[in-house]
Write a structure and sequence with these properties.
About 75% of the residues lie in helices and about 0% in strands. It contains 16 helices and no strands. Helix 8 packs antiparallel against helix 9 and helix 15 runs antiparallel to helix 16.
């Protein structure tokens, strides 16, 4: 009888143990309470404790907890910045902009933090590679932003002395020559041409050459540059508009329709595109389409600040 009892106990033993394990399951974590705890820790400056909690619970918060999710994401961004965890900070900012578009605090924080990230990267570059072309280019761009064209040009020329075929530098020099007062169009053209010799895929250099020709009334040359720019970069909306405008000015109205159609699809709120397309339609004998575009032009212009008049 004792033997039978012991045998039964051996069989039931694992079941009892299993039941004990089941009873010891971890309690279910309330994401709302956990998020509130993390937000509270972050508010006290205890970011090293707060960040793991917030990262774990933030994605679990439902749409019903929108305000809590907002506070949690903000806390993640701020704590990540303070701890120099840039990837986490950027992810939090992107999430905030996706879920709370046009929120003033989100936009302010995004501006402030991305500016800070740029500053940190700039300082890191200056500290680790001060003689690199990239560090020199940052210096040149800083002079550009200040309107100090001579110092900016000198920096760019110094870069080219050391790296004569570095892409982008001749283009920047060309822009400087155009920005000066008075503008030096001949030197700018030389720089844009030099850029395309080094980098034939520079759509911006093609565009600038086209714009210079368009302003000089050289419609065919301008159209060629704008056409190449739009083929190099199919998302270059301004190139399609400028191409259509140049073709219209050259009297090639049927040819202007296609690039202008592309432009108005990309920028439907710009009255200039509808105006130019309406003109191309009207002068090509497409009266109904022309009337439709002119109506769209008036509608778009009504929503646009007065100073942004249609380009003609």
């Amino acid at each position: 009888m004792l033997t039978v009892f012991l045998s039964a106990l051996q069989v039931c033993g694992p079941l009892v143990a299993s039941g004990a394990q089941i009873s010891k399951k971890a309690p279910v974590v309330d994401p709302m309470a956990s998020a509130q705890q993390g937000i509270s820790l972050a508010a006290k400056g205890r970011c090293r404790e707060a960040l793991p909690v917030l990262r774990k619970t933030s994605s679990s918060l439902s749409l019903a907890d929108k305000q809590l999710k907002y506070q949690a994401s903000m806390s993640i961004a701020r704590c990540a910045m303070s701890l120099n965890q840039m990837e986490t900070a950027v992810q939090a900012l992107l999430s905030l902009n996706r879920e709370f578009p046009h929120d003033p605090e989100v936009l302010y924080t995004t501006t402030h933090f991305f500016s800070e990230l740029a500053s940190r990267a700039s300082q890191d570059l200056a500290a680790t590679s001060p003689a690199s072309p990239q560090a020199q280019q940052l210096d040149a761009e800083a002079f550009e932003s200040q309107g100090n064209w001579d110092k900016a040009a000198a920096e760019y020329k110094r870069i080219l002395e050391q790296n004569p075929r570095l892409p982008g530098i001749h283009y920047r020099l060309g822009r400087i020559f155009l920005a000066k007062t008075p503008a030096d169009a001949e030197e700018a053209k030389k720089e844009f041409d030099a850029e395309l010799t080094i980098d034939p895929s520079n759509a911006s250099a093609e565009f600038m050459l086209g714009e210079m020709d368009r302003q000089a009334g050289q419609w065919d040359q301008a159209s060629g540059h704008f056409s190449r720019a739009s083929k190099i970069d199919e998302g270059f909306a301004e190139a399609y508009l400028a191409l259509g405008m140049s073709l219209n000015s050259a009297g090639k109205f049927p040819d202007a329709i296609a690039p202008l159609q592309t432009y108005v699809k990309m920028q439907p709120a710009d009255p200039a595109g509808h105006y130019q397309l309406g003109t191309a339609y009207a002068r090509s004998g497409h009266k109904q389409e022309a009337e439709k575009e002119m109506a769209l032009q008036r509608e778009a212009a009504a929503k646009t600040p007065r100073e942004q008049a249609p380009q003609q």
